[in-house]
Amino acid sequence: MSVIVDYLIIIWCFLMIGLMTIGGFFMFRKFLKKLPKKDGKSTMDWEEYYVNKTKDMWNEKEKDLLEELVAPVPELFRDVARHKIASKIGEVALMKNQQVINQETLIEGYIIATPKRDHKFLRKKLAQKNIDTAPYEQFFLQSKEDYQNNWETNYRK
């Protein structure tokens, strides 16, 4: 009986160490996003700025499309993903000096904000909605990593 208890304690220790490591990893990532950049604002500060600056520019149709696009994200992470994607869409809209966020801007911003592995789902969803992906091919060809460094320059090409 004591051998079983010993094994359970060992398993419990490894489980706790694993869970604490995973939690620490996510906390550290959030900490890195809060560190100020050269301009004095952090990545999270800029995300918040773009979301607040453009929150009145969204129509219900575009809000619904964004909800459909973030639907496959696990519920635990969906709010974070929605916020990050909406901020990039807002940034693109402000760069274009738009008054309202339209479907084209939403799709461009979504592509820019998401990693390449999520583009397959986006293509499938756009095909279901009968939206042509040809105008967005230049964005699909670049991975998210390409956008993180000088994405504005790549966007204007």
TrEMBL record:
Keywords: Membrane, Transmembrane, Transmembrane helix. The chain crosses the membrane at residues 6-28. InterPro entries: YneK. It holds the Pfam family DUF2621. This is DUF2621 family protein. It comes from Virgibacillus massiliensis.
